[in-house]
Design goal:
The protein has 232 residues and is α/β, with parallel strands linked by helices. The protein is 33% helix and 22% strand. InterPro entries: BamHI/BglII/BstY, BglII-like, Restrct_endonuc-II-like. It comes from Haloferax mucosum ATCC BAA-1512.
Length: 232
């Protein structure tokens, strides 16, 4: 697996380059640890994709979050293997669930449903591995990351998404990189006040296209900005 796309929002690239280059490099290595034979193991009953082995969010999450970010690089992670046990076992690995307190922030102490978590956290760099429903993409960028900023837990948010190429070989309803980039670029200017915009980097991953040049991110990144009504 390779990082095939990257965009910057709210000063994300500048923040990454100045403060979180080590964390970014570790995340890239974790993503690249996924091999096709460990990813395309999901059996499907969807009529439109019958007979295909689809990309498994469970194995990708396990490899990136547990084996790499947590075990190899010492990140705090919040990951549950419950729904994907069979696919993780399919590639000969042991499903593990980890809930690290550093990935949790409560809105108020003792509030039962107030807990918020991110998938990975290190040195105030938050990562969401979003291989799920498309509605969660924009929520992560405009709500969850902002929640962590208000609790002084985040300096940069990184959203990891399948590219449009990869999502063709996943279950239906999964969001993808190009979709999030388009959604953010079409937000009105004042949808989120400038003082509350979190530095965010969006990453698209897949197998079919070559990796971006990580040594020249300025040339690779698409700078996404909110637009005004007059732009339409």
């Amino acid at each position: 697996m390779r990082v095939t796309d990257i965009f910057s929002f709210g000063g994300g690239l500048e923040t990454l380059q100045s403060d979180y280059r080590d964390e970014y490099d570790e995340l890239v290595k974790a993503i690249e640890s996924n091999t096709a034979d460990e990813v395309f193991v999901k059996r499907t009953k969807e009529a439109s994709k019958s007979g295909k082995f689809l990309a498994s969010p469970g194995t990708m999450n396990h490899n990136i979050l547990i084996e790499q970010l947590h075990d190899t690089y010492g990140w705090a992670v919040d990951h549950s293997a419950g729904r994907n046990k069979s696919e993780i076992e399919e590639i000969g690995k042991e499903p593990r669930s980890i809930g690290d307190p550093e990935c949790e922030v409560d809105i108020s102490p003792g509030e039962r449903y107030g807990k918020r978590t991110v998938d990975g956290w290190k040195n105030s760099c938050c990562v969401e591995i979003q291989f799920g429903k498309y509605a969660f993409m924009i929520y992560d960028v405009l709500a969850k990351f902002g929640h962590f900023q208000q609790h002084d837990k985040i300096g940069l948010g990184i959203e990891v998404l399948p590219s449009n190429n990869l999502v063709q070989d996943m279950s239906t309803g999964v969001g993808y990189y190009e979709q999030l980039e388009a959604e953010i670029s079409h937000l009105p200017t004042d949808y989120v006040n400038e003082e509350y915009r979190i530095p965010v980097v969006g990453i698209g991953v897949g197998f079919e296209r070559p990796s971006i040049d990580h040594n020249n991110l300025e040339a690779e990144v698409g700078v996404t900005s909110q637009q005004t009504v007059a732009d339409f």
